[in-house]
Amino acid sequence: MQSWRRRKSLWLALSASWLLLVLLGGFSLLRLALPPRPRPGASQGWPRWLDAELLQSFSQPRELPEDTASPPQAPHGGSCNWEACFDTSKCRGDGLKVFVYPAVGPISETHRRILASIEGSRFHTFSPAGACLLLLLSLDAQTGECSSMPLQWNRGRNHLVLRLYPAACPRTFQLGQAMVAEASPTVDSFRPGFDVALPFLPEAHPLRGGAPGQLRQHSPQPGVALLALEEERGGWRTADTGSSACPWDGRCEQDPGPGQTQHQETLPNATFCLISGHRPEAASRFLQALQVLAALQEMSPARVLALRQQTQFLWDAYFSSVEKVIHTTLEVIQDRIFGTSAHPSLLWNSPPGALLALSTFSTSPQDFPFYHLQQGSRPEGRFSALIWVAPPGQPPLKLIQAVAGSQHCAQILVLWSNERPLPSRWPETAVPLTVIDGHRKVSDRFYPYSTIRTDAILSLDARSSLSTSEVDFAFLVWQSFPERMVGFLTLSHFWDEAHGGWGYTAERTNEFSMVLTTAAFYHRYYHTLFTHSLPKALRTLADEAPTCVDVLMNFIVAAVTKLPPIKVPYGKQRQEAAPLAPGGPGPRSKPQAPAPDCINQIAAAFGHMPLLSSCLRLDPVLFKDPVSVQRKKYRSLEKP
Amino acid sequence: MCASVKYNIRGPALIPRMKTKHRIYYITLFSIVLLGLIATGMFQFWPHSIESSNDWNVEKRSVRDVPVVRLPADSPIPERGDLSCRMHTCFDVYRCGFNPKNKIKVYIYALKKYVDDFGVSVSNTISREYNELLMAISDSDYYTDDINRACLFVPSIDVLNQNTLRIKETAQALAQLSRWDRGSNHLLFNMLPGGPPDYNTALDVPRDRALLAGGGFSTWTYRQGYDVSIPVYSPLSAEVDLPEKGPGPRQYFLLSSQVGLHPEYREDLEALQVKHGESVLVLDKCTNLSEGVLSVRKRCHKHQVFDYPQVLQEATFCVVLRGARLGQAVLSDVLQAGCVPVVIADSYILPFSEVLDWKRASVVVPEEKMSDVYSILQSIPQRQIEEMQRQLFMEPARRENWSAANHQMNSLIWPREQRDSQIINDRIYPYAAISYEEWNDPPVVKWGSVSNPLFLPLIPPQSQGFTAIVLTYDRVESLFRVITEVSKVPSLSKLLVVWNNQNKNPPEDSLWPKIRVPLKVVRTAENKLSNRFFPYDEIETEAVLAIDDDIIMLTSDELQFGYEVWREFPDRLVGYPGRLHLWDHEMNKWKYESEWTNEVSMVLTGAAFYHKYFNYLYTYKMPGDIKNWVDAHMNCEDIAMNFLVANVTGKAVIKVTPRKKFKCPECTAIDGLSLDQTHMVERSECINKFASVFGTMPLKVVEHRADPVLYKDDFPEKLKSFPNIGSL
């Protein structure tokens, strides 16, 4: 009994302490034993599952080949994409050929310009049957007339409907499979990869040429407002770098104090412009703009610099004239047709842009003269001499020897362009000599002959006279400037107040803007540009007035590079005789017809004056320096 | 022990009556109980230690232990995917805040198991790939575990493969997520969309506004600028490690390795094989493989057996043909093998096409032109093919970049979830977006190539003029002469004197020469050569003329001409005294040369024009410790500037005007040779040091200099623009 009682109290004590234990520690012990759900505050990340290795793959290997193909799906609900709605089979052969439906009734100025820009382009064809793309201009609101269904409509297949003004016309017919090119398309109706988005073309937009970008310097000037915000009524509000930015998440309550409103038509002088898509809440927009400001302030100067230059490049390359906008549209469509031989994106997005870097020439950037730096490549170390032999047609034996003597010369091509029979014997040269029988036309000189195997061409006239070291030095200079023309004799253009037009002269002046192509180095790509992208009228002009060809070639290169050509030294004695001078007092064999006003005709066709003047000549480093001639590499250049 | 002793003292009456055996037993028991009590009491005061041990446990849970969620049959279903969704309509940017690192924050929902009313599970809990994918996000910078800070939400509901899903129930599971809110800012990953018979090209699960990263989008279902197209993962790419194979011709020209092709397509391909013989190889499933051989790793042509995917490396082009689905896992295999994919799948949105330039690495052929595919490929020049192959190899290069952070991600396409986040990140912070080139240019190519920061061909207007910066210490007399001479140059617009002497004040205002342009004196905090190249706010022109305080021999014509030359070459250093670097074959290192040479690769900045932007670059972007080296040695700042400009533009300097005797650093040595020689040795050291820091020799050697057009021509001097050149 006693022992039972004792035992009882013992049990009591025991159970009491167990109870205590459970109460006090049970909970925490439980927590120890059973892991709770992750707490929100602690940083844990995605758990490492114990059985991660055992998880099954999302698709079993035998499941993958399960897709036995079904026939291609038909497009849903009348929507279109490139593969479904464009028939590329019509575009084989010479790429994109465009037929334009003639205008019916009175047309607006913009409309007329667009028609002109297509008709003047290499894309244009007069036959709707032979065309790969049929272009229909949706008439603008001004005339109030809306077009009816065109003849060759065929449910809109291979049609491009050009709409200059959003919803100018009610739809009189279903667009069907036609592509639409319009300004500010809406996200809902725009079909990426099929439709084309255009910039808005103002009525006064020039047909071709176009004003150059207004960026005259690479970096912004200090003190220029950072941000300008588009307001209603065409005004601009500017904000300084100094203004405080709103917190990003809070709604800005501050008064837009630091800004100033400029009510003017011209664009403000600011680093960034905020364009808010024509919404009325301009005031609240401004506050948001201040938030943007905070973001923009973070941008490094290098980035701002790159953006500024890119805007200018894009403007110049694709936006500044009606012709550029239209040609860009056609080029975009042509790239879709070409597929693998379309422009690589580098060609679209760096100067001179895809309209001037023809993908028909090459799709490899290294083949062009413009991208060596981006590609980390170097121009080739050899050149081809192309000697044009016009009447009276003496084989230029001395010239061939001098040019072939250059260590950089890879081949000599003689373009025989006169009535006399080809001489049977040519001098022995270290390099291969090929004779091409030309068509007696000046434009032959700039044809992209497949026999030209080097990037560099030394274009020569049979009457030119050059020494080997002149050729060597000029070629080394060209390698530093492969996109420019490097020549010996120069012309300069000027504005002739008296006649209200451009003029040019071969007289020696302190500046020059053209080099004579009768002795000049340039990239063979310019032959392709001359032959395939120049309007035919200009090539005809060159054939009719041979002296114009120099001007024309310089225009092409300057329009592409936006840089002046380069002049290298030329022996003094021969310069006096000026055998290379065009139409001037030089000893031309037959009297030239008075040179037509080619510079003005060419400038009109280009739409602007691309020529730029240079005031320098590149000489050898020790040229005429008071040092022993033995030290000089090009000492023969200095001989009197 | 302490506790048991206490007990002994308190209960002496009780214990002696117990049997010895029991006594020991109870004492031990009580001691344990009390110890336990004390221990748990202590735990109460030590909550942190519990927490930390907790963490360790949580990390190691089993997928089978995740909480179960029951979905009532009538719980809400999200609307079908909204095809009109765009970033500005369906995405709430305000959630993404504005954070200094311009990184979006991604939250991942906790893993749960979803069952329907009958307790039947809705889908497999999670697949291996989805687990890895979520792990990668969680290990990345984008991850946050704070749902309130998140901008993007990733459900842990695995929808990679639509075949394994119960569509309605999965949608219900999505709709009950805590921040679902019509799916805005939610990102779903799917690789195998659609199902028989029509095989939709996007996930069929109703998902309202959620973003979809999907494999196999077509132009019909892809919401441009909203969805992200991703590659279909190939299980093989993780298993097989293929050796790298450089560009160049391969054994087969065209290869098709897919099995289960549509019979029509197979006929087309086989016709090509008949026509072109050995150069085309069309493979199929193997029918007579022995037991134990994995059929996915073998392909057959007639009785020939090939290892897959190794055989892909033997071909130049590999066909990636659509199946019932547009996205094909074979694309991943082909890319990994470095074979140029020929994608024949109309309207397929190639993976990451928003940022990747597939034109550079693949050939896309319309289905209707399949029979012409051989001739289309033949027309591609060899050089372009090699460029494409190189482009493919850049993929692995980039992959290493990405996977540096998480080494599990070593298969070709697995960096993708980070890429996705990056693409979406770019949309949210477009101004900080990575440029197209950064996405597409292989780092290998970048070595040789440069992207000139002043790439726009532009001739700055003459009217702007230039700012002359004269660095001076205390040669006041000489400085004043320089100021007077330079002020005669017509295009000078401002003169800045950088006073580098901290122990001496500059002369009083009244003592300075009176000149026609503003003259500013900047006092520096330390006597450093780098002060010359600081982008002072006072410089308001683009053109800067750096000139030493002892260069008094340049004529006004020469300086004006130098400025005109700079206008034609605004991205170059245009200077007067030229120098050359040479490779010393005996010493096997670079050597500095100041003799009369026919070549030039540097100009001294004791008198040179350059763009102000290079001051910014010199001060803030000079690589390595070059700036400190220059300041420590008090020398070579001009060589450093030459390296910097040549490296960033890839262009040579322009030396202007003939050589004349300059009072330049080399010439200041009073007693001739010895000092001169140490100076030359030091300059050579600089070239070697800088070349090693830049990792290359950026300087370009040229043989030309710029002179006025009519320089030394037989022409009346008075008619020349710059007659006074080379005189003195």
TrEMBL record, chain A:
Residues 383-623 form the Glycosyl transferase domain. Its main location: endoplasmic reticulum. InterPro entries: Exostosin, Exostosin_GT47, GT64_dom, Nucleotide-diphossugar_trans. It is an enzyme of class 2 (transferase). Residues 574-594 are annotated as: Disordered. GO terms for cellular component: endoplasmic reticulum membrane. Keywords: Disulfide bond, Endoplasmic reticulum, Glycoprotein, Glycosyltransferase, Membrane, Signal-anchor, Transferase, Transmembrane, Transmembrane helix. Pathway: Protein modification; protein glycosylation. Pfam families: Exostosin_GT47, Glyco_transf_64. Its EC number is 2.4.1.224. It is a single-pass type II membrane protein. It comes from the Eukaryota. SUPFAM superfamilies: Nucleotide-diphospho-sugar transferases. One of its GO terms (molecular function) is glucuronosyl-N-acetylglucosaminyl-proteoglycan 4-alpha-N-acetylglucosaminyltransferase activity. It is found in: Endoplasmic reticulum membrane. Residues 96-292 form the Exostosin GT47 domain. It catalyses: 3-O-{[(1->4)-beta-D-GlcA-(1->4)-alpha-D-GlcNAc](n)-(1->4)-beta-D-GlcA-(1->3)-beta-D-Gal-(1->3)-beta-D-Gal-(1->4)-beta-D-Xyl}-L-seryl-[protein] + UDP-N-acetyl-alpha-D-glucosamine = 3-O-{alpha-D-GlcNAc-[(1->4)-beta-D-GlcA-(1->4)-alpha-D-GlcNAc](n)-(1->4)-beta-D-GlcA-(1->3)-beta-D-Gal-(1->3)-beta-D-Gal-(1->4)-beta-D-Xyl}-L-seryl-[protein] + UDP + H(+). GO terms for biological process: heparan sulfate proteoglycan biosynthetic process. The keyword Transferase applies. Belongs to the glycosyltransferase 47 family. Glycosyltransferase required for the biosynthesis of heparan-sulfate (HS). Transfers N-acetyl-alpha-D-glucosamine to the nascent HS chain (GlcNAcT-II activity). Appears to lack GlcNAcT I and GlcAT-II activities. This is Exostosin-like 1. It comes from Pongo abelii (Sumatran orangutan).
From TrEMBL, chain B:
Its EC number is 2.4.1.224. The chain crosses the membrane at residues 24-46. SUPFAM superfamilies: Nucleotide-diphospho-sugar transferases. Gene3D superfamilies: Spore Coat Polysaccharide Biosynthesis Protein SpsA, Chain A. Keywords: Disulfide bond, Endoplasmic reticulum, Glycoprotein, Glycosyltransferase, Golgi apparatus, Manganese, Membrane, Metal-binding, Signal-anchor, Transferase, Transmembrane, Transmembrane helix. Glycosyltransferase forming with EXT1 the heterodimeric heparan sulfate polymerase which catalyzes the elongation of the heparan sulfate glycan backbone. Glycan backbone extension consists in the alternating transfer of (1->4)-beta-D-GlcA and (1->4)-alpha-D-GlcNAc residues from their respective UDP-sugar donors. This is Exostosin-2. It comes from Pongo abelii (Sumatran orangutan). The gene is EXT2.
